[in-house]
């Protein structure tokens, strides 16, 4: 597996584009790839109309470094390693199919060194801060990233007015970038959310409405809607790529919980166990509601779960797990539990596929041995689990079926709706 990560990391390193060149000019004519000559930008109607034709997405990624504690070279390597891990995680059922293609291949168009050379901490003026906000509240000014004052940092001059620079919203609108990651050190100087996004709301027929909602893991009330979605992911330079994957997994969950795409919400919540109140009639929506910091779930048998909830014991007989979520493996005893060897009945690899006789879903005895191969790919936080977990999300050529019995839509294009 180490050789695979090295290969993917090499493939992930981009040829950086000229700061004055609009990368959309070089987009392929092949409309099974995105972006392409017909669609360059997030939230394009083209994405909805051609969702099922896309065989690979190559979103353009902008990386900002606000961390004075780390070298730019260190963080470039970390960002490229995360790109490689995400590529590996987008190989549908790649854990058993070595030929499964990469669907999500980020292209890093720019690394911007925005450290303050005159500061020893992460408190330089180049990191936009709300100076009136006191700890521990979030003080990073996300809206300032879209301002004309900040635009020169990106270095893209307006082709129509070369004396000015393009703002972030213009870069997104014109297809220069599709996602933004930023490194900020874990200090009180700059306090950010893990991963945030504003997104248009779609109806049940995938028609874009005028409504906009927060669809990430947090929200800056001062950030204005600019017309197209943009995910902004924070990376801790003192941690590794597994923690970066965890942030992005919370954005996947946030997109479902916000119900901006009803189709995605319907199935993701079932897969991730975010519907336990309605599906199992429990007094909580998911295991996210359970207490942090100690074991609150035990498994006396592979199909029995005993849950501690607000001083009460809830015993679940005939317990079955679908797919789990960012914090909870199928056999998790507490938040972030990667080390439980106890087996549980789980259908993550056959969820909505039905490989057993009569089309029944196959429940297998699941343990953390399933994620061993990925402990070196994304070793920290929930990384090993999340590479495997994402490979089980309905992706390219997936085998899952929706409620009507039709092939499930690939979930990854929803990221750029």
Describe this structure in words.
- The chain has 417 residues and is α/β, with parallel strands linked by helices.
- It folds into two domains: 2-269, no CATH class; 281-404 and 412-416, no CATH class.
- The protein has eight helices and 15 strands.
- α3 (72-89) links the parallel β3 (60-65) and β4.
- The longest helix has 18 residues, at 72-89.
- Mean pLDDT is 92; it is low at 1-19 and 120-125.
State the main characteristics.
417 residues; 15 strands; alpha/beta; six-stranded mixed β-sheet
Short description:
The protein has 417 residues and is an alpha/beta fold. It folds into 2 domains: 2-269, no CATH class; 281-404 and 412-416, no CATH class. The chain is 19% helix and 18% strand.
Tell me the series of helices and strands, N- to C-terminal. Answer: HEHEEHEEEHEEEEHHHEEEEEH
The total beta strand count reads 15
- Residue stretches low in confidence (pLDDT < 50, at least 5 long) are 1-19, 120-125
Q: Note the overall shape.
A: globular
Q: Average the pLDDT over all residues and give the rounded result.
A: 92
Q: Name the structural class.
A: alpha/beta
Oligomer: single chain
- Cα-atom radius of gyration: 22 Å
The fraction of residues assigned to DSSP E strands is 15-25%
Write the layout of secondary structure elements.
Blueprint: H1 2-12, E1 33-34, H2 45-49, E2 56-57, E3 60-65, H3 72-89, E4 107-113, E5 157-158, E6 161-165, H4 168-173, E7 179-183, E8 195-202, E9 208-214, E10 230-235, H5 241-257, H6 262-272, H7 276-279, E11 297-301, E12 304-309, E13 312-317, E14 344-346, E15 364-366, H8 383-391
Parallel strand pairs: 1-2, 3-4, 3-7, 7-10
Antiparallel strand pairs: 5-6, 8-9, 8-10, 11-12, 12-13, 14-15
Helix pairs in contact: 1-3, 3-5, 3-8, 5-6, 5-8
């Amino acid at each position: 597996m180490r050789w695979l990560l090295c290969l993917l990391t090499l493939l992930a390193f981009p040829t950086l584009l000229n700061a004055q060149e609009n990368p959309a000019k070089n987009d392929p004519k092949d409309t099974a790839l995105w972006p392409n000559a017909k669609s360059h930008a997030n939230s394009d109607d083209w994405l909805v109309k051609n969702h099922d034709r896309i065989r690979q997405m190559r979103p353009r990624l902008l990386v900002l470094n606000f961390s004075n504690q780390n070298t730019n070279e260190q963080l470039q390597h970390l960002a490229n390693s995360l790109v490689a891990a995400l590529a590996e995680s987008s190989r549908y059922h790649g854990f058993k199919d070595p030929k499964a293609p990469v669907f999500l291949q980020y292209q890093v168009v720019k690394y911007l060194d925005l450290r303050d050379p005159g500061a020893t901490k992460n408190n330089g003026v180049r990191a936009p801060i709300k100076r009136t906000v006191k700890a521990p509240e979030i003080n990073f000014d996300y809206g300032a990233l879209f301002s004309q004052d900040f635009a020169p940092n990106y270095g893209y001059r307006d082709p129509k007015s070369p004396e000015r620079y393009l703002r972030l919203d213009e870069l997104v609108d014109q297809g220069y970038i599709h996602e933004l990651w930023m490194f900020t050190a874990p200090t009180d100087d700059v306090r950010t959310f893990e991963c945030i996004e504003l997104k248009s709301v779609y109806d049940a027929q995938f028609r874009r409405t005028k409504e906009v909602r927060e669809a990430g893991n947090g929200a800056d009330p001062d950030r204005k809607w600019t017309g197209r979605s943009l995910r902004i992911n924070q990376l801790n330079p003192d941690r590794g790529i597994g923690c970066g994957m965890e942030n992005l997994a919370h954005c996947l969950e946030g997109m479902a919980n916000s119900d901006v795409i009803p189709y995605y919400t319907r199935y993701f919540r079932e897969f991730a166990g975010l519907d336990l109140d309605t599906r199992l009639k429990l007094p909580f929506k998911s295991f996210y509601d359970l207490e942090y910091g100690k074991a609150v779930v035990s498994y006396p048998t592979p199909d029995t779960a005993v849950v501690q909830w607000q001083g009460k014991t809830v015993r679940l007989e005939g317990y079955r797990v679908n797919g789990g979520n960012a914090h909870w493996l199928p056999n998790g005893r507490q938040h972030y539990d990667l080390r439980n060897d106890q087996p549980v009945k789980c259908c993550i690899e056959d969820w909505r596929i039905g490989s057993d006789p009569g089309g029944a879903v196959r429940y297998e005895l699941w343990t953390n041995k399933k994620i061993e191969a990925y402990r070196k790919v994304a070793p920290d936080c929930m990384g090993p689990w999340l590479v495997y977990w994402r490979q089980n999300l309905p992706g390219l050529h997936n085998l899952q079926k929706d409620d009507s019995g039709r092939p499930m839509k690939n979930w990854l294009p929803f990221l750029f709706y």
